[in-house]
């Protein structure tokens, strides 16, 4: 089974072009950081409440990426907010992304293609080799959004991240996006880490707008 | 965390006490799930003695609510302390599970729904 972080990275990938969908960098950074925290929460290693995030069990999971983040949170020695850790994890997010891609390549989900554009500029693409995992994530999200049933915790965290990044357009057509908006908002509220990702993305977006308006 | 059980008018009432967080959420889940797996489909959680709930605890509530929805059973909570109700409200859980101010009101509502 893929991690939440791997699943969300696949959703950011345009499967036709093998490139990542155009979205502000901070959205992807915060979503990946949030996804890693969610993976640790679902593995019952960390826990949260509306004020803080704390380690429940420091035992490594066996996933190098998640275990490093778990150790980092544990070493801080104090309870901090989810927002603090989202901002903290943004610093190493490029390396995190590369490692997630390596993992997806190693699992045979993606392939890495290096090429030159106009014979000069280096460019990378990541065509999907095996799209079963991606289709499965999209199917789960769609099922949860178009039913009245209580969603599964794993689906809630993915939906809260997709909602925070406004990424439903990669799964649904514009009319469907409008139809599921209130259900998506309702589900997205159900995960406190997802809420924090949404709030932090909103804050970064607002600060960028403020900065632009004063230029 | 302790989990007391009693039965009233065919409804299983489970009353946890203390904190529900990642350190005991698995025990809480298996403690309640044992009853559901044994066939109880009308379950009321009396939260009077619960002073704190974290995301891990909420996740258990979600799993129980989902399980009883699939089994076409009944699930409700009652007698929540204000701070715990606040966590349910912030996370939108007040919209997906039935929460009643008192045990008596919860029992009456569950009986009316099954009539």
Strand and helix map with partners:
The complex is a heterodimer of chains A (215) and B (115).
Chain A: H1 4-11, E1 13-14, E2 19-20, H2 25-42, E3 46-48, E4 53-55, H3 64-76, H4 82-90, H5 93-106, E5 113-117, E6 121-125, H6 132-145, H7 153-164, H8 174-188, H9 192-213
Antiparallel strand pairs in A: 1-2, 3-4, 5-6
Chain B: E1 2-8, E2 11-20, H1 25-37, E3 42-46, E4 49-53, H2 55-70, E5 74-78, H3 82-90, E6 98-100, H4 103-114
Parallel strand pairs in B: 2-3, 2-4, 3-5, 5-6
Antiparallel strand pairs in B: 1-2
Multimeric status of the protein: heterodimer
Tell the overall outline of chain A.
globular
Q: What is the N-to-C order of secondary-structure elements of chain A (H for helix, E for strand)?
A: HEEHEEHHHEEHHHH
The amount of beta strand of chain A, in percent, is: 5-15%
What's the number of helices of chain B?
A: 4
How many angstroms does the end-to-end distance of chain B come to?
34 Å
The helix-and-strand class of chain B reads alpha/beta
Task: Report mean pLDDT of chain B, rounded to a whole number.
Answer: 95
Uncertain segments of chain A are none
Description of the molecule:
The complex is a heterodimer of chains A (215) and B (115). Chain A has helices at 4-11, 25-42, 64-76, 82-90, 93-106, 132-145, 153-164, 174-188, 192-213; strands spanning 13-14, 19-20, 46-48, 53-55, 113-117, 121-125. Chain A is mainly α. The longest helix of chain A has 22 residues, at 192-213. In chain B, strands 1, 2, 3, 4, 5 and 6 form a six-stranded mixed β-sheet that branches. The model of chain B has no long low-confidence stretch (mean pLDDT 95). Classes of the chains: A mainly alpha (215), B alpha/beta (115). Chain A binds chain B through residues 41, 44, 46-50, 56-57, 149-153, 156, 186, 189-193, 195, and chain B through 21-23, 25-26, 52-56, 58-59, 62-63, 65-66, 69, 86-87, 90-93, 95-96.
């Amino acid at each position: 089974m893929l991690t939440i972080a791997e699943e969300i990275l696949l959703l950011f990938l345009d499967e036709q072009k093998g490139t990542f969908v155009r979205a502000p960098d901070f959205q992807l950074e915060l979503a990946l950081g949030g996804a890693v925290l969610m993976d640790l929460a679902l593995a019952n290693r960390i826990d949260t409440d509306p004020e803080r995030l704390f380690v429940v069990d420091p035992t490594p999971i066996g996933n190098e990426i998640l275990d490093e983040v778990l150790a980092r949170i544990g070493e801080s020695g104090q309870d901090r907010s989810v927002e603090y850790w989202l901002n903290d994890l943004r610093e190493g997010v490029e390396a995190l992304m590369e490692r997630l891609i390596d993992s997806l390549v190693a699992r045979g989900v993606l392939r890495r293609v290096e090429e030159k554009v106009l014979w000069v500029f280096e460019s990378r693409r990541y065509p999907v080799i095996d799209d079963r995992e991606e289709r499965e994530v999209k199917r789960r999200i769609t099922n949860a959004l178009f039913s009245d049933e209580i969603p599964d915790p794993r689906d809630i965290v993915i939906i809260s991240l997709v909602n925070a990044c406004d990424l439903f357009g990669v799964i649904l057509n514009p009319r469907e996006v409008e139809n599921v908006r209130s259900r998506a908002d309702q589900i997205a509220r159900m995960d406190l880490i997802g809420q924090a990702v949404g709030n932090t993305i909103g804050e970064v977006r607002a600060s960028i707008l403020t900065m632009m308006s004063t230029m | 965390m302790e989990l007391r059980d009693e039965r009233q008018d065919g409804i299983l009432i489970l009353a946890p006490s203390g904190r529900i967080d990642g350190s005991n959420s698995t025990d809480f889940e298996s403690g309640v799930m044992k009853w559901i797996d044994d066939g109880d489909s009308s379950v009321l959680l009396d939260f009077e003695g619960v002073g704190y709930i974290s995301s891990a605890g909420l996740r258990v509530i979600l799993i129980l609510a989902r399980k009883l929805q699939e089994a076409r059973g009944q699930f409700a909570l009652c007698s929540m302390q204000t701070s715990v109700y606040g966590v349910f409200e912030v996370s939108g859980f007040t919209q997906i599970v039935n929460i009643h101010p008192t045990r008596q009101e919860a029992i009456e509502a569950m009986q009316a729904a099954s009539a």
